[in-house]
Design brief:
By secondary structure, the protein is an alpha+beta fold. The longest helix has 26 residues, at about 295-320. The protein has 10 helices and 10 strands. The mean pLDDT is about 95.
Length: about 325
């Protein structure tokens, strides 16, 4: 609270509400005039200051283009990202934090055709803005640009059961080697990176709201599109076609990249394993995922990865036929 008051010249009334967040620490605070804010303290070591600044730059670009996002609040000098030194078991560390206006909303459930068109249009507008810059300090959503690093993080952390480690390594190496050539000629741009329906809220008459740019990256545009689908692409043709129709009202879409949807799903499965392993020190995560990391857990994961690779192989076979 002192950090917020000092950085943004606010007087807070003492209200402090902790919000559920595995990676970062997020709190609600209120000024003495009744204005409510959200302050996000980024987990030290996850992103560099430069990478966090690129997240803010992306959101601010969207806000300048009148896209429905929640932009960080600048201080008196126009800076949206602040840092402070914090004592920890490892010594003094630098923690970055940012302040946002509080914006509510509820999940947007796309059911009607017009809902899917609306989502596609929103994403097309967002990608039009995203293409105006690059983010050189963020990950690139390709097997070599991100996923292989996640695999190494899993092994460094010791999260993979030793009984299953060789099988897991063999499967992921086979899968990534198989899909990597598919990304060789694909154009990458700034993307949200985690554009699933839980990160699109509706505010009634005010319209939709895109939240949580924490995983923004460089990557193929299709990464933001497939996460919206309720099923595999071959089982969600109606929704996919409506998304594309809405998207292409604002921006051309390279439909040849639709072949990357299932490879990207495989990469997402590996990313989620690495993300979960990163949360093992979090009491809430351990409480809600008591079986995570067991031998049985990793056996199931290996089988799921094998199944996904077979889906990719079958889809490519159908294309060639």
């Amino acid at each position: 609270m002192h950090a917020v008051e000092a950085s943004w010249q606010l007087i807070l009334d003492g209200t402090l509400q902790a919000y559920s967040s595995y990676v970062n620490r997020v709190y609600g605070v209120r000024a003495d005039n009744g204005e409510e804010y959200i302050v996000k303290f980024y987990r030290p070591g996850r992103w560099t200051i430069e990478a966090l600044a690129e997240e803010h730059e992306f959101v601010l670009d969207c806000a300048d283009a009148e896209l429905p996002v929640v932009a960080p609040i600048p201080d008196g000098d126009g800076c949206t990202l602040q840092t402070m030194e914090v004592e920890s078991a490892e010594g003094v560390i630098e923690a970055a934090f940012a302040l946002y206006p509080k914006r509510g909303g509820r999940g947007f459930d796309a059911e009607r055709d017009e809902d899917w068109l609306r989502l596609g249009s929103l994403l097309g507008r967002l990608h039009s803005v995203a293409a105006s810059r690059v983010a050189s300090h963020r990950l690139t959503c390709t097997p070599g640009g991100s996923t292989r690093g996640f695999v190494e993080e899993l092994f460094r952390s010791g999260a993979v059961s030793q009984d299953v480690a060789d099988d897991f390594r063999s499967v992921v190496d086979e899968g990534l080697a198989f899909i990597e050539p598919m990304f060789s000629d694909v154009s990458n741009q700034r993307i949200h990176g985690d554009f699933h329906r839980a990160n699109v809220l509706t505010r009634g008459d005010e319209g939709l709201l895109v939240i949580d740019f924490d995983d923004m990256m460089m990557g193929p545009a299709v990464q933001d599109l497939w996460l919206l689908l309720p099923d595999h692409a071959f089982a969600a043709r109606r929704e996919l076609n409506l998304l594309l129709e809405g998207y292409e009202e604002f921006r051309p879409f390279d439909r040849s990249t639709l072949r990357l949807i299932e490879p990207l799903r495989l990469m997402r499965m590996i990313y989620y394993l690495a993300w979960s392993a990163y949360q093992l020190s979090d009491h809430q995560f351990r409480s809600t995922n008591p079986g995570w990391g067991s031998r049985a857990f990793w056996i199931r994961e290996v089988e799921d990865l094998k199944t996904q690779i077979s889906v990719i192989v079958a889809e490519l076979r159908d294309e060639s036929d």
